[in-house]
Design brief:
27% helix; 6-stranded parallel sheet; alpha/beta; 2 domains; Rossmann fold; 11 helices; globular; Quinone Oxidoreductase, Chain A, domain 1; single chain
Length: 340
Amino acid sequence: MSTDILSNNAMKWVLSTIPVGDSIDLSHFELVEEKLILPQDDLVLVESLLWSLDPSTRLMMKPSQGGFPGLSPGDTIPSLGIGRVIHTTSNKAAVGSLVRGPIGWSTHATLDANSITVIPQEAKRLEDYLSVLSTTGATAYFGLVELARAKKGESLLITAAAGAVGSIAGQIGKILGLRVVGITGNKEKGQWLVEELGFDASINYRGENVEEKIRMCLPDGIDIHFENVGAHFLQLGLDYLNYQGRIILCGLISEYNQPQVTQLNNLSQIIFKSAIIRGIFLNKDFGHRLSDAYDKLEQWLDDGMLKNPVQQYSGFENLPSTFLKLFSDNKSFGKLLVKV
């Protein structure tokens, strides 16, 4: 068995050069080959099956900042994913079992047994474990339930509402009894939010006056602003935030490709409105309580109260081009995944 495993080499995508400014394209990725080595000392070797693509990976392609370590040329592009165990020196996962872990953009990965989660044999959809039952869903859950302390009857505005976290946050908002409005980039996405996910209203920032639509859809103001984009949208959120409103900073995707961040000119609103702005860094804030979120999210899934919107693409070779859709394709929605 060991000889059969070692007869194949692994392939992986690495960062070839550091992107400069807002320029990122296929030339920044390189496909390389490496020899497989059998793991030792409580490690597992997995064959990758499914990869999660996330905007935060772009932050790692910049100089180290905060909790995101910077990548160097030659480093494997990081990614959460699901793989099948093909060799193990740990009793945590048997050969043949499916596990979630930091597999990176690689056909095979050697993982610390403490970094993996074994997928239940009765799992119906593997993609659930890279979206609603993973860090994506937990971020939306803790952001609204714990940080925003959302209460029935309040209003919720979500930017990048058709994205991975935003689409789940909006559904959770409806479950909690909120009025939910989502900002997105085209009419079709807006219809999808309302008709498929149950949002109360949507705003197409490319085709509508956002400020006018906020006043129309949320005439009583914003109690909770769930921010995934930043820039102009964050400023508008502050302008229309209610007294003691809460802004949850989940992401700032508009700035990931920019060399300089946007400067806000209305921060005084935080004082006048006694508002709270709180960032969510899931592993540091709630890493010890992830099972609490997963249990609740799974219950909502099973009860049909929550949908898991995903878009799946095929082909390990297409990882870079699919990743770039996060920043250039106005047609993507939900969680972006790539299967083998």
